[in-house]
Amino acid sequence: MAALARYDGRAVALLTQHGKQAVIAPVLEAGLGCRVRHVSGFDTDRFGSFTGETARACSQLEAARRKARKGMELAGTTLGIASEGSFGPDPVAGLIPWNIELVVWLDDELGLEVVGMAQGAASSAHLQSGDWAAVAAFAEREGFGQQQLVLRPDGAHDPRVRKGLGDWAALRAAFDAAQAESASGQVWVELDLRAFAHPRRMQHIAQAADDLLQRLRSPCPACQ
After folding, report:
1. What span, in angstroms and rounded, lies between the C-alpha atoms of 27 and 212?
2. Closest by alpha carbon to 64, among 124, 22, 111, 20?
3. Residues 71-94: pLDDT tens digits?
4. Whole-Å CA distances, 93 to 13, 89, 96, 98, 204
5. Cα separation of 116 and 33, whole Å?
6. Are the C-beta atoms of 162 and 150 separated by less than 8 Å?
7. In this predicted model, what pLDDT tens digit does every residue of 122-173 receive, in sequence order?
8. Nearest-angstrom CA–CA distance, 37 and 59
9. Beta partners for residue 127, in sequence order
10. What's phi and psi for 111, nearest 5 deg?
11. In terms of pTM, does the model score above 0.85?
12. CB 183 within 8 A of CB 154
């Protein structure tokens, strides 16, 4: 238990602009007695964005490390946490969309890095349509309101992206604007994969935080 006691009352930096503190902090504060310090004011999309404006230039784990390190720098702490997600095909058959979430813990005093992970099925649903009724039906199926959407004119790679759409008035206004910009009259609709906008991702992040906690509760048998 000495390994856990070292974090009691300690400040741990968590850099996020996507609301991840809501599911990470309760797990680690209850399990370790630490104080998770939410660090904001830095655009974490610089490390890569799910809506395509910035490509991730490193691995998923390295992106999490960089976020944790930046949070520690900004908060002036020797402890840091960060998370990073990825989407791709499932690792067994490669047939269904899959979400992997990592939560990394850095302890500079011990020179320690511990990583928690969770993974599971994810939706990659999308639609291209010029029909508002079809877009509204798609939104209903995907749990719109809790699950937010992203719209673009014409296609999946159009840079004229509208995101953060979580209510019907905003969605309709974004649809009308994107359709007016579209050369084909078609609008591309997809799920917003950012954590705060994607309930299933938030569940996986919470599970990854719990996996991290269990790993931190497993001290080295040689040195404790």
Report:
1. 10
2. 20
3. 999 999 999 999 999 999 999 998
4. 38, 8, 8, 11, 21
5. 18
6. yes
7. 987 999 999 999 999 999 999 999 999 999 999 999 999 999 999 999 999 9
8. 25
9. 189
10. 65, 40
11. yes
12. yes
